[in-house]
Design goal:
heterodimer; A: about 300 residues; Rossmann fold; Alpha-Beta Plaits; six-stranded mixed sheet; about 30% strand; B: about 400 residues; mainly alpha; 2 domains; four-stranded mixed sheet; 19 helices; 4 strands
C-alpha cells in the first residue's frame, strides 16, 4: 500500500519538558488511522507538528516521500475550530477553497452537494453566526474536505456532536477512505474509533504505547476475561490454570485469562464446586485497555509493536 | 505573496460588506459635514433678513458713487442709499429699524476729520470696522479739496511700510499667505491619509484578536504560513484605509473648495505630495506591524491589559508634539519628534507643511530611523503573531511576548 504520510522519530519539547518522544507512524492511502490517547497525551501536538503549525525539535515528516506537506493536498479539521462570524457560509467555504488553489466553480458545486448531504440545504447565504453549533461543525467539516485532499487530518472530529451527526460524519469519513483519501484522526472516544479505524496508534504522555492493525491489536492485547457471579473463594480461583489476575467487585469476580488460554477447554476444566449464578466470557475491550493505560495501572501494557 | 493577496482580498471584502464598517466609513465624515452645515445654518438664520446692512448716506459733498464702488470692491454686504433727512430726525427713524446706519458727509469732514455715523441698536458687530474702508476715498476727496495734485495724492496715499529683511531668510521674504497654503494643502492631505489608514489599522488590532476568538486561525494556517496571513491582513486593511481616505477626501475637498476659496487641486498636484504620501504609508506600516503583533497577544478587545492599551494609544502620541512643533518647526522638540518612530510620521508631515525650506538631512535621518523600525517591528510582529495567534483564551503577558520575540 502507498504510504501517504510518514512520521519519523518525532520529538518536541516545551519549556524543557519533552511533550513528544520518538513518535513514528505511517498513514496509508485509503485507510483510516487513529491516534488515540487521553487528554494531554500529545495527540494535538503531533498533529500540529504534521501540519507545520508547530515545528518539531527532532524527526521528519514526509508526504508521499517528500519532505514537508503541500498545503493544498491536505485537509485539516483542528480541535480548536471555528469560523469567521458575520460572513456568509458559502463565502467562507469559497475563501478556504481559494486558499487551497481549488477551482471556485467546482468548489461551489461540491459545497452545494455536501449541503444536501448534511441537511444544510439553503443555508449557503446564511451568516455563520446564525448557524447552530452542530451546523457550524458540519460547515467546518465540509471546509476541510471541499478541495478533495489526499490526506485528511481530523483532530477530535466527533467532539460536541450529537449522535445523528456523529453517524453522518462517520459515514462520510468511511466514504472518503473508500475513495482513496488517507485519513488520520485523533480521538479520546474509543468506542467511536474502534468500529471505523483500520489501524490505531495509542499514545500516552507523548510516547507510543500500542501501534498496529486494529484486529491485531485486539487479538494481541484483548485477552479473554471471565466474569462470574456467586460466592467463591478468591484463592481457589487464582489457582486455576491460565488465570493471570483476579479482580473482585460488587458480588462478581473477574478472571483475566492469559493470551494462550483456549476458552472452550478452559471452561470445561472449571471445578464443579464453583457457585455459578452467572457466567460470561468477553474479550477485554479497547476501552478497558485505554483506561488501564490512562490511569497508569499498566496491567496490560506490553512492550513491542505489532507490525501492520 | 499570492496567498497574502488572497487574504488581503478576503479581509477587504469581508469588511466592506460589513454594515458596521460601512456605517463607520461614512459616519465620521458625515458628522464633520453635519457640524459644518449646522454652523452655516445657525449663522445664516440669524442673518438672513438683516444680513444686508442698510446704509443711508446724506451726501453733501457728492462722492456717493465712489463710496458705493468702494463698498462693492470690498464685498461688503451693504445696501447703500442716498437720503436727505437731517441729523435731528435720525433718532426717530433708527428706533424702529434694525441693521441700519446713517452717515452724514458734509464740510465737517474736511474741517474736523470727523464723520458722524448713527446706527440702530441691532447692527452687524463688524459694521464699525467695515466703515473704515470708506476712509480712503473720503481722505482722497479731502486732500483733493485741499488742492493736491493727483501725483502728490498718489504718493501720500501709498503710506509708509517698514520692510524687514535679514540675510538669512532673504529667500523666504517674498512668501505670501497663498504660498503658505500651497505647502499646507499637501500636508493636510497626507495628514488625512495617515489618520484614516491608522484608523483602519486599528481594525487590524481587532481582526487579529478576533481570529483567535473565532478559533479560525488554525484552519487558515493549514493553508498558508503565519507570515502570509499577517501580510495579507496588513495589505487588506491598507486598502480599507485608502477607501476611508477617499471617502474623507470626497467630503473634504469639495467642502474645502467651497469654504476656503483656494485652488486646492492645483496645490495638491505637486511633487512634494509624493513625499507626504510616502511618509503616511510608512506611518501605516509601522502601526500596522505594531497592532497586528499586539492584537495577536490578546484574547479579545475587552481583556486588553495596560500594556496593550498603551500600545493602542501610541498613534495619538504625535498630538503631544503639535504645540511645540507649530511654535518652532525647527526646534528641539520638532527634531526629537522626527526621530521617535511612533511620532515621526505625524511630526514630519506637520513640520514639512509649515517649514518653507525642508531640512533634507533631518528628513533623511528620520526616514531611515522610521524604515529601520518598521523592519524591526515587522520581524517582531511576525514572531509574536506566529505564536500568539494559536494561543486561545488568555492574554499573553509581556514576559511571554518577550520570550517569543527572542525565540
Amino acid at each position: 500500500m502507498e504510504i501517504v504520510l510518514k512520521v519519523d522519530h518525532l520529538g518536541k519539547s516545551f519549556k524543557n519538558v519533552q511533550i513528544l518522544h520518538d513518535i513514528s507512524f505511517e498513514v496509508y492511502k485509503g485507510e483510516i488511522m487513529a491516534i488515540l490517547g487521553p487528554n494531554g497525551a500529545g495527540k494535538s501536538t503531533t498533529i500540529r507538528n504534521i501540519m507545520g503549525i508547530m515545528y518539531p525539535d527532532h524527526g521528519s515528516i514526509k508526504f508521499l516521500n517528500q519532505e514537508g506537506i503541500p498545503r493544498n493536498k491536505i485537509g485539516y479539521l483542528p480541535e480548536e475550530r471555528g469560523l469567521y462570524k458575520n460572513v456568509k457560509v458559502m463565502d467562507i467555504l469559497l475563501y478556504l477553497a481559494e486558499l487551497k488553489d481549488y477551482p471556485l466553480k467546482k468548489a461551489k458545486e461540491r459545497a452545494l452537494a455536501y449541503f444536501k448531504k448534511f441537511d444544510l440545504e439553503g443555508k449557503q447565504n446564511t451568516s455563520v453566526d446564525e448557524l447552530s453549533k452542530g451546523m457550524g461543525q458540519k460547515v467546518q467539516f465540509i471546509a476541510s474536505i471541499l478541495h478533495e485532499p489526499e490526506l485528511l487530518i481530523l483532530d477530535e472530529p466527533f467532539s460536541g456532536l450529537d449522535p445523528v451527526s456523529q453517524e453522518l460524519f462517520k459515514q462520510e469519513i468511511r466514504n472518503l477512505a473508500a475513495s482513496g483519501t488517507a485519513i488520520l484522526l485523533s480521538s479520546h472516544q474509543i468506542n467511536l474509533v474502534e468500529e471505523m479505524c483500520d489501524r490505531i496508534f495509542l499514545i500516552h504522555r507523548g510516547q507510543k504505547v500500542i501501534y498496529g492493525n486494529m484486529d491485531d491489536v485486539k487479538r494481541e492485547y484483548a485477552n479473554f476475561k471471565c466474569t462470574i457471579r456467586g460466592e467463591n473463594d478468591l484463592n481457589e480461583l487464582k489457582g486455576l490454570p491460565n488465570v493471570q489476575r483476579v479482580e473482585q467487585k460488587e458480588g462478581s469476580i473477574v478472571l483475566y485469562l492469559s493470551k494462550d488460554a483456549h476458552v472452550a477447554h478452559w471452561l470445561r476444566n472449571l471445578p464443579e464446586t464453583l457457585e455459578l449464578n452467572e457466567l460470561s466470557i468477553d474479550r477485554i475491550s479497547l476501552h478497558e485497555i485505554f483506561i488501564d493505560i490512562a490511569t497508569d495501572r499498566n496491567l496490560f501494557k506490553k512492550e513491542g509493536m505489532i507490525s501492520a | 505573496m499570492r496567498n497574502a493577496f488572497k487574504v488581503a482580498k478576503w479581509e477587504f471584502k469581508r469588511n466592506i460588506k460589513n454594515k458596521s464598517f460601512l456605517i463607520g466609513l461614512f459616519l465620521t465624515p458625515a458628522i464633520f459635514l453635519f457640524f459644518i452645515l449646522i454652523g452655516n445654518i445657525v449663522d445664516g438664520s440669524s442673518g438672513e433678513d438683516k444680513d444686508t446692512t442698510r446704509v443711508f448716506i446724506r451726501d453733501n459733498i457728492g462722492i456717493l458713487d465712489t463710496l458705493q464702488k468702494t463698498a462693492k470692491m470690498h464685498d461688503l454686504n451693504w445696501y447703500m442709499q442716498a437720503t436727505d433727512i437731517s441729523e435731528k430726525e435720525v433718532k426717530e427713524k433708527l428706533a424702529s429699524r434694525d441693521n441700519t446706519a446713517y452717515i452724514f458727509l458734509d464740510d465737517r469732514a474736511i474741517d474736523t476729520g470727523i464723520i458722524p455715523v448713527y446706527t440702530s441698536e441691532e447692527i452687524d458687530p463688524l459694521f464699525m470696522n467695515q466703515v473704515q474702508v470708506l476712509e480712503t476715498p473720503i481722505k482722497a476727496w479731502q486732500m483733493k479739496q485741499l488742492g493736491l495734485s493727483d501725483e502728490e495724492l498718489a504718493t501720500i496715499s501709498k503710506g509708509i511700510l517698514f520692510k524687514e529683511s535679514t540675510a538669512e531668510d532673504s529667500a523666504a521674504d517674498n512668501k505670501t499667505a497663498e504660498e503658505g497654503m500651497a505647502s499646507i494643502v499637501p500636508g493636510a492631505f497626507a495628514g488625512i491619509l495617515l489618520l484614516s489608514i491608522i484608523f483602519s489599522g486599528m481594525y487590524i488590532f481587532q481582526s487579529a484578536s478576533q481570529e483567535k476568538k473565532d478559533k479560525v486561525a488554525e484552519i487558515i494556517l493549514s493553508s498558508l504560513t503565519p507570515g502570509e496571513l499577517m501580510q495579507g491582513k496588513i495589505i487588506g486593511y491598507f486598502w480599507l484605509g485608502m477607501i476611508q481616505a477617499v471617502v474623507f477626501l470626497g467630503f473634504g475637498i469639495p467642502m474645502a473648495i467651497w469654504k476656503l476659496d483656494i485652488p486646492i487641486v492645483e496645490y495638491l498636484l505637486v511633487p512634494e505630495v509624493i513625499l507626504f504620501i510616502f511618509i503616511a504609508i510608512l506611518g501605516y506600516l509601522l502601526f500596522a506591524a505594531l497592532f497586528i503583533g499586539v492584537g495577536a497577544t490578546m484574547a479579545d478587545m475587552a481583556s486588553a491589559n495596560n500594556f496593550q492599551g498603551m500600545v493602542m494609544m501610541l498613534p495619538f502620541l504625535p498630538f503631544v508634539f503639535i504645540g511645540p512643533v507649530i511654535n518652532d518647526p525647527s526646534g528641539l522638540f520638532a527634531q526629537i519628534g522626527s526621530y521617535i518612530p511612533f511620532t515621526a510620521p505625524g511630526v514630519l508631515i506637520l513640520r514639512l507643511s509649515i517649514l518653507e525650506e525642508w531640512p533634507w538631512v533631518e528628513i533623511i535621518i528620520a526616514l531611515a530611523v522610521l524604515i529601520v523600525s518598521i523592519w524591526l517591528f515587522m520581524k517582531m510582529a511576525g514572531k509574536i503573531f506566529k505564536t500568539g495567534i494559536l494561543m486561545y483564551g488568555k492574554n499573553a503577558t509581556p514576559k511571554e511576548i518577550w520570550k517569543w520575540i527572542r525565540a
